[in-house]
COMM domain-containing protein 3 (Poecile atricapillus), 152 residues
Amino acid sequence: ILDDPDLKDIDPTVLKHCHAAAATCILEAGKQKADISAISTCLEDCKLDKERIEQFCTEYQKMTFSLNIVVSFSIGRSPLHITDVSWRLEYQIKNNQLHKTYQPSYLVTLNVENSDSGSHPDVSFSCTMEQLQDLVGKLKDAAKSLERATQM
């Protein structure tokens, strides 16, 4: 956001506050499962013009599914449980500008379920070998900590 040339004249602190406010609004709307009319009313109360409200609501509707996944991971009643993991190696040969890159990455898919409501959509992400090694190391540390805690 700070590198956007259209926003270069705005104080970076103000931009950060605006970004935090927008993120909080989106998160709260997701937590409350607010519909577009409720969000629109709230934004009208904040004196936003109709064009910006429509644009916000359109983008919010596009991201509702992803937002529900994020909200359920972070504030659900019970945490999601990973039931299976699958992965595959992806090898990028060229980037968008047709420059040769030769970058391997891993596409990881976590199958998850919640004890409250059954299954959830899979969670997928892409990572480099270093990021995957870091994740595996952290999971091993967590498993060791859990093992030590159950032995006490």
Q: What stands out?
A: Residues 12-74 form one domain. The chain is about 50% helix and 25% strand.
